[in-house]
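Late entry, written up from scratch paper. The run itself happened at the end of the previous shift, but nothing got recorded in the book at the time, so transcribing now.
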Amino acid sequence: MTEDRDQNGSRAFHAEALELDAHDPLAQFRGRFFLPPNTIYLDGNSLGPLCVDAEAALQAAVATWKLGGIEGWTNGPSPWFTMAERLGARVAALLGAESDAVVVTGSTTTNLHQLLATLLRPEPGTTVVTDASAFPSDLYAIKSSLALRGLDASKALRLVNPDRHGILQEGAIIEAMHGAQMVILPAVVYTTGQLLDMARLTTAAHEIGVIIGFDCAHSVGSVPHELDQWGVDFAFWCSYKYLNGGPGAAGGLYLNRRHWQAVPGLAGWFGAAKEIQMKMTTTLVPADSAGRLQIGTPNILSMAPIDGSLTVIEEAGLPALRLKSLTQTDFMLRMLHADPAFNCVSVVSPLEGERRGGHITIQHPGAAGLSQALRTNGVIPDYRPPDMVRLAPAPLYISFQDCFQAVQQLKLLLQDPSGWQDLQPGLVP
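Output as recorded:
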């Protein structure tokens, strides 16, 4: 009877997936992506796949270089000299920010270093608050910045631990803010997929005079934000996840207008006001915008694909992407909770849509081997040590049928762990 019930449940979910796909207004965008053959690609929260628009934009940049040489800085369809600002204005629309408050530049970590160098004041008692489960590179940058200022991270860095379910409690974060100078948090927690209430946390920080910034690497292009409206002080991110900009694509940063007169902590010539930059003055006159935090010459060939990949997101519309993302993750969560075969895993992502980003996470003691086995069987997830498998159904190119098939494959592997339980992760999870 139990097996019959499980089969009936699977048939119902399969029928639901087919129905959702039949009425999916975003299904048309799948054909614009190059997906690994015979696979279900659920790793877009780590590296988004190439789309034809990004490829075309990269080829156009190469053609401009090939045919025009140095003229590409000021001529051609996308002049390189102002590319960082133009792309920034387009990303700003995804973040609820005014166009000059965002610039595409650097990487997640270098941008955080720049923001810390610019906004963190080295004074006695300086304390930075972040979460204990923060992405390691963020912790490296914070500790490095404190050390460069002669501060002891064991005293100047205050970590907020998640609860026993792996969830960051916002009340605990707010309590930890007292007496701090700066708070740096993820918009979406990279491990569990938890979406923090950025508006609430920003209000709480500002009520006690604390600067607050967010790592939006796992939210930009996936979750709508209103950074200006919420009053967030700064944010930073990469462009190779949901923005599909390619491996090592240029990152980006947001700087609230109230900080536009801050002296760049790491000065460089591309942070100069554009109208005087090429005059080669020996005294930096920073741009009156977030562009002042640029440092060196932009990496044009790692920025060009973003020019194309943003086109797809703009055509689809972020509200539609968010709606489908929530529907897909909810669909997968319902499958996981409905079948006793999944009782051996823990689902650590929030069930409430308003508290969830674009991916879901399960815990299993053999997560490393399970992730490898999923890849062998045509499902590409993401493993994070010691025991997490992340599944990201990116709405531009993942169907509901993909979601159904992925969960079914996960079920088959859990029912017979003999072939994978001793597998170890590769060099790159």
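The chain has 14 helices and 13 strands.
(Scratch paper discarded after transcription.)
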